[in-house]
């Protein structure tokens, strides 16, 4: 049963024989591209590894800076709250909240 969407059968020509030189060039370029990609990946992987090591070392410093800033902020906030509420500052305040 034919419908209006059926296309007529098209007779295809037999495939052309590709020159061995062209096949050699195609395969050579493919293998060269794969070798370049592997070399480039290795180079970028080394750079990324070095970058991650540096970030890990810097993160330790950044975390310490954030910790000190938070302690300073907490101390200032506690002094502000004591002033606003007219509370007495405890004698051991400097031990609890160091400068």
UniProtKB/TrEMBL annotation:
Chief localization: mitochondrion
BP GO terms, sorted: proton motive force-driven ATP synthesis
KW Electron transport (keyword) present: no
Keyword Membrane: yes
Record Pfam families: ATP-synt_E
Molecular function via GO: proton transmembrane transporter activity
Record keywords, A-Z: Acetylation, ATP synthesis, CF(0), Hydrogen ion transport, Ion transport, Membrane, Mitochondrion, Mitochondrion inner membrane, Transport
Cellular component GO terms, alphabetical: mitochondrial inner membrane; proton-transporting ATP synthase complex
InterPro entries (alphabetical): ATP_synth_F0_esu_mt
UniProt-annotated location(s): Mitochondrion inner membrane
Sequence similarity: Belongs to the ATPase e subunit family.
Entry function: Subunit e, of the mitochondrial membrane ATP synthase complex (F(1)F(0) ATP synthase or Complex V) that produces ATP from ADP in the presence of a proton gradient across the membrane which is generated by electron transport complexes of the respiratory chain. ATP synthase complex consist of a soluble F(1) head domain - the catalytic core - and a membrane F(1) domain - the membrane proton channel. These two domains are linked by a central stalk rotating inside the F(1) region and a stationary peripheral stalk.
Complex formation: Component of the ATP synthase complex composed at least of ATP5F1A/subunit alpha, ATP5F1B/subunit beta, ATP5MC1/subunit c (homooctomer), MT-ATP6/subunit a, MT-ATP8/subunit 8, ATP5ME/subunit e, ATP5MF/subunit f, ATP5MG/subunit g, ATP5MK/subunit k, ATP5MJ/subunit j, ATP5F1C/subunit gamma, ATP5F1D/subunit delta, ATP5F1E/subunit epsilon, ATP5PF/subunit F6, ATP5PB/subunit b, ATP5PD/subunit d, ATP5PO/subunit OSCP. F-type ATPases have 2 components, CF(1) - the catalytic core - and CF(0) - the membrane proton channel. CF(1) and CF(0) have multiple subunits.
Protein name from the UniProt record: ATP synthase F(0) complex subunit e, mitochondrial
Organism: Oppiella nova
């Amino acid at each position: 049963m034919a419908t209006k969407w059926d296309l007529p059968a098209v007779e295809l020509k037999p495939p052309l024989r590709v020159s061995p030189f062209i096949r050699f060039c195609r395969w050579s370029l493919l293998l060269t591209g794969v070798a370049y990609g592997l070399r480039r990946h290795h180079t970028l992987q080394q750079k990324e590894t070095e970058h991650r090591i540096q970030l890990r070392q810097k993160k330790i410093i950044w975390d310490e800076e954030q910790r000190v800033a938070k302690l300073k902020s907490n101390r200032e906030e506690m002094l502000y709250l004591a002033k606003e509420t007219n509370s007495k500052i405890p004698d051991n305040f400097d031990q609890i909240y160091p400068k």
